[in-house]
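Lecture 7 notes: from sequence to structure.
We start with the chain below.
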Amino acid sequence: MPGKPVPAGARGQRFDDVDAINLGTHTAGGLPLFVPETVNDQDALMAWYRQFQPSAPVGESRRYSNLSIGLLGLAAAASLGSDFVPAVREQLLEPLGLDHTWYDVPTTEQGHYAMGEDKSGEPTRVSPGVLEDEAYGIKTTATDLRRWSRPISGYSRSTMSCSRRSMPPSGPTIRSAT
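Predicted structure tokens for the same chain:
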């Protein structure tokens, strides 16, 4: 991705045609879902990206991938000249007042956060990993999620009341073309 804000270690011919849209929509050439087990630090991750062999042409096939969304997170942070977590905290969480959204949930707050199950059915939290913060590591409450989603969805009490007033009480009318 020459000229694009991707970590230098991941740049290479395989990513020359990949852009942020491809990473965010999981159309970056078939990146796998999970980070390979042999990748346990940033250097190994960058080496893995450099050797990656696409399984599909860029933009033609959608395959959900933590490696795709994780690389998008790394690219976003690089474009801000920051590491990912501080960039999200300073540029997003703090300005929006998301006081119950974390990467590392305080022990006193863990009762507000969902748990999954491991392979044996035991309760567990998100597993740590090389791209845990960039790909799947943020945790939030329903209140903070609502606070975050309202500005981007265009929802407000005034727009909802306007749309309700403009719709007849019985709902929209569908007329036949005949």
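Points to note: Residues 159-178 have pLDDT under 50 and may be disordered. The helical segments are 20-24, 42-51, 66-79, 84-96, 132-136, 142-153, 157-166.
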